[in-house]
Every structure is written in structure tokens, then in C-alpha cells.
Amino acid sequence: MSNPTLPERRPSGRAADEMRPVTLTPGVMKNAAGSCLAEFGDTRVLCSASVEEGVPAWRKGAHAGWVTAEYAMLPAAGNRRTPREYRGRKGRSMEIERLIGRSLRSVCRLDRLGEVTITLDCDVIQADGGTRTASITGAWVALHQALMGMVEKGRLPRLPLTGQVAAVSAGFVDGIALLDLDYPEDSNAEVDLNLVGTGDGRIVEVQGTGERATIDRAQLDKLLDLSQAGIARLARLQSEVTGYRL
Hints:
Elements: E1 22-26, E2 34-40, E3 43-53, E4 66-73, H1 91-105, E5 116-126, H2 131-152, E6 165-173, E7 176-179, H3 183-187, E8 191-198, E9 203-210, H4 217-242
Parallel strand pairs: 4-5
Antiparallel strand pairs: 1-2, 2-3, 3-5, 6-7, 6-8, 8-9
């Protein structure tokens, strides 16, 4: 696949390496242990954290907690109504919620959590591409708030986090490497990639697909470089809204 000269602006007005406006608003739900409204352009995901005593049966006796996630898209989140997904028919949603759970556990010391389960619910209220990346980024903020609440109440001696985790998309559209794809770009991408990474630059997970083309190693490196720069920006924003520092 060719890699032509980058245009100055995308149809949205953004530069190729420019993210959509991102806002992370913590504490938006009264009854949740932690919450965050994550907005990536027109994509909006409401993330909430619930803390429950006990762990799944297979974790009992491990003297460690568990962090998991559930993900759902509201019927009117997209440009046409999608039916609600119920247990037993959750293919795409199940794949995404497992990704969210893995991402959060990568920066949480479960052995310091005690035998409790923290569930992150990520509900997409408006979708314009990147719902899984917004979910991961916002869920970390909700998790941080829930864990800080446990520390403040004396349930934990210290914050059991080893760092931050965030995620962003990138892809080739018309042969051009772009960061943080909105829906029109994502639906027309020759290659798209989702990168999950930590605030200190480590990679947690890479999900990439050649939808209409293949890429070489240099082009893959270009997408990874774009994505890691985006994750660094998201980590700074997470720090600003939570006060978290390693």
C-alpha cells in the first residue's frame, strides 16, 4: 500500500496526528463508587465502578480481588437504532468488555485489593467511532475514583494501582496514517488498529486488522507511533482530572 504525502487537514478539520477533543468528567454518578463521562468528539461513554464483597468462585482462596467490566451500547447511540443485547447474544460486546477488563487489570495489583470485585460498566450513549478506546480511558478514571474511596474509608492501606492505562485508535484511510478515527474514517479505513497502553509508554494490547489492504513493518510502526503519542496525551488528561501521579 502506498503512503502519499499527508494532507494538511482531514474532512473534520483535524491534522493527521490530531485527536478529537477529549473530555474526561469524573464523579458524574451519585451512587457509583466511581464514575466518568468520557467524550472523544461525538463519542460519549458513561463509565461507572461498583465495589462488591467477594470474588468469583474460581478466585476464592487466592487472597486477591478481581476487576472486570461490562459494555453495552444504548439502542439510540448510533445513527440507527440497534436492538439491546442480552446475555447469551453478546458477541461484539463480550469481546470489548473482556478487553476493558484485561486493560484495567494490567495496572492493578489484585493481590493488594482484598477479596472484592470491582465491576466497570461502560455504557455508550453516543457512538461516532472509538467506543472501546473511550471506554478503557474513562473506565480507568472511574476505577481510580473507586479505589481512592476505599483508601479514604480505610478499606485499603494504599492505592493498588501500578500506573495508568488508556487506549486510542489509528488507521490508514486513503493510504494516509490517521490518529483517533471517527466513524466515517473508521468505516472507510484500509487498515485500522486499536492500541492499549500505559501512561509510561508500555503496550498492553494491540488489535489491528487489514480490512482492505496490507501494510509493511514501517507502516505498522507509523500507526504505533501515532497511537502511543495519543495515549501519552490521554494519560496527561487522566492525571489532570484525578491528580494521580506514579
